[in-house]
């Protein structure tokens, strides 16, 4: 069993960093430690030996150097929205909460993101300068890890993935060196951090490309966001209409078909969370077939891009057992989709604490924009996803809820491996070939990992 971090080790760390750096422990720091040890999900949540709160890049680097030299395992934490920023009492969490910021260069159309800056803060700062970048739908997600792990965006078809926006980074590597990552100095590392960046180092700063708001197809910086609600019993006719709508690339629709039981009534329903990019006044046209079905609720309107994820803010709450069950797909199969609804029904019957769980099919009628460079990211052929939000409260139901999710994913992806792909921001298990596809990609990443992090300071992903 791994050895607990000792008091003398902590003294040593504090001595090296100086008293201005806050170091919290379970014994000494009470509620503040407990609060900071929390994350988006309790799945895999452990209690760390200490939480270190650096305020500067230098302090982050010194912490990494100390940990590497002392053979103390560590994880970085930015927004805390993954299962992987947690570690047991043998290790430390380098919590970047106090090191955060964004500098926008409107002329160059770039933005420099620092430390733990959150997605919403990036979106707001960019909108103020008439631009946006490829962000996802979690306002309080840490922007840097999001970009490093691929970054599936609501603007994929206009901008490409989040990782396609990365131009440069400042990264602390497994030896504690500060590395400038860019095309001229470290092209290999740049390739790697564009999609597999969480496995190569601690990124203190990330420079990303920005896009003028006019690329959204209107002069107001908005996208159309709407919702259509149907009783679950109407799933077949809704799915048939949605199939044609989702396959029609002539109109820029995107969103989720969600099987869920929304509060307060908790009546099982099919909810289409829809978006339209372009002139918001035109949104009624592509969605006409849905209006024609006369849903229980149909609403929508233009929303400034920086607020496009506000309606989903409740999903960002901390605590409980949450997880995304994700698989990238080639198409929407109606029969399989209807089968998954039966799995969802069986799950909420057997595990009533999983009532917040939604089985979601995600689409974008247009493919992601493909960048002009090669990178670790390999999902440019993917515009459909099964993207389940697993959310339950009873620890005893942990395994069972996962089994239902697995069953849903198994049904949707079918037996043919060429029909599906895994997403590195969503999973760290299963064959690596499903996350980093394409000739030579995985071999190249493994070689880069061996070069930059041969002992697995930043996870053993790509080593084992
Ligand atoms: C509600 C919600 C919505 C989401 N929506 C999307 C979406 O639309 N598109 C999408 O692609 N993903 C989405 N995600 C997934 C999310 O982008 C990833 O889980 C992301 O890694 C979370 O970053 P974080 O900083 O919040 O999490 P953390 O748990 O703090 O960090 C995630 C991982 O990155 C490491 N890390 C933290 N900081 C750094 C750093 N500075 N340098 C290197 N590694 C670091 C951590 O050790 C951990 O392994 C969503 C997640 C949630 C919970």
Automatic annotation (TrEMBL):
<dbReference type="InterPro" id="IPR016169">
    <property type="entry name" value="FAD-bd_PCMH_sub2"/>
</dbReference>
<feature type="domain" description="FAD-binding PCMH-type">
    <location>
        <begin position="44"/>
        <end position="213"/>
    </location>
</feature>
<dbReference type="InterPro" id="IPR036318">
    <property type="entry name" value="FAD-bd_PCMH-like_sf"/>
</dbReference>
<keyword id="KW-0560">Oxidoreductase</keyword>
<dbReference type="Pfam" id="PF01565">
    <property type="entry name" value="FAD_binding_4"/>
</dbReference>
<protein>
    <submittedName>
        <fullName>FAD binding domain-containing protein</fullName>
    </submittedName>
</protein>
<dbReference type="InterPro" id="IPR006094">
    <property type="entry name" value="Oxid_FAD_bind_N"/>
</dbReference>
<dbReference type="InterPro" id="IPR050416">
    <property type="entry name" value="FAD-linked_Oxidoreductase"/>
</dbReference>
<keyword id="KW-0274">FAD</keyword>
<dbReference type="InterPro" id="IPR016166">
    <property type="entry name" value="FAD-bd_PCMH"/>
</dbReference>
<comment type="similarity">
    <text>Belongs to the oxygen-dependent FAD-linked oxidoreductase family.</text>
</comment>
<keyword id="KW-0285">Flavoprotein</keyword>
């Amino acid at each position: 069993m791994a050895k607990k971090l000792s008091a003398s080790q902590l003294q040593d760390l504090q001595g090296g960093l100086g008293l201005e750096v806050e170091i919290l422990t379970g014994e000494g720091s009470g509620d503040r430690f407990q609060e900071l040890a929390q994350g988006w999900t309790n799945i895999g949540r452990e209690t760390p030996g200490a939480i270190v709160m650096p305020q500067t890049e230098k302090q982050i680097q010194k912490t990494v150097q100390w940990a590497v030299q002392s053979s103390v395992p560590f994880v970085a934490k930015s927004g805390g929205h993954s299962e992987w920023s947690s570690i047991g009492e043998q290790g430390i969490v380098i919590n970047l909460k106090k090191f955060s910021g964004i500098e926008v260069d409107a002329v160059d159309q770039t933005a420099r993101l620092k430390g733990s800056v959150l997605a919403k803060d990036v979106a707001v700062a960019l909108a103020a300068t008439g631009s946006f970048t490829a962000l996802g739908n979690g306002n309080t997600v840490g922007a840097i890890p999001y970009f490093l792990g691929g970054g599936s965006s609501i603007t994929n078809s206009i901008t490409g993935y989040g990782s396609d926006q990365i131009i440069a980074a400042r990264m602390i590597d497994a030896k504690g060196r500060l590395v400038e990552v860019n095309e001229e100095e470290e092209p290999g590392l740049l390739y790697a951090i564009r999609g597999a960046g969480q496995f190569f180092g601690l990124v203190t700063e990330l420079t990303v490309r920005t896009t003028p708001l006019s690329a959204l197809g209107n002069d107001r910086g908005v996208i159309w966001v709407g919702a259509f609600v149907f009783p679950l019993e109407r799933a077949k006719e809704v799915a048939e209409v949605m199939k044609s709508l989702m396959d029609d690339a002539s109109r820029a629709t995107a969103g989720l078909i969600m099987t869920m039981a929304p509060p307060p009534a908790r009546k099982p329903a099919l909810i289409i969370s829809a978006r339209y990019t372009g002139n918001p006044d035109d949104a009624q046209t592509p969605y006409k077939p849905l209006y024609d079905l006369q849903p229980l609720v149909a609403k929508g309107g233009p929303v400034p891009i920086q607020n496009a994820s506000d309606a989903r803010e409740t999903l960002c709450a901390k605590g409980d057992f949450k997880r995304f069950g994700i698989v990238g797909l080639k198409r929407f199969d109606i029969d399989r989709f209807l089968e998954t609804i039966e799995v969802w029904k069986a799950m909420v019957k057997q595990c009533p604490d999983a009532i917040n769980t939604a089985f979601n099919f995600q689409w974008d009628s247009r493919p992601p924009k493909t960048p002009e460079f090669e990178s670790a990211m390999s999902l440019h052929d993917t515009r459909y996803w099964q993207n389940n939000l697993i959310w339950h409260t009873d620890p005893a139901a942990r395994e069972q809820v996962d089994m239902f999710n697995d069953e849903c994913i198994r049904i949707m992806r079918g037996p043919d491996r060429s029909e599906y792909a895994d997403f590195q921001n969503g999973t760290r298990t299963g064959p690596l070939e499903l996350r980093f596809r394409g000739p030579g990609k995985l071999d190249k990443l493994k070689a880069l990992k061996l070069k930059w992090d041969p002992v697995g300071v930043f996870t053993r992903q790509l080593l084992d």
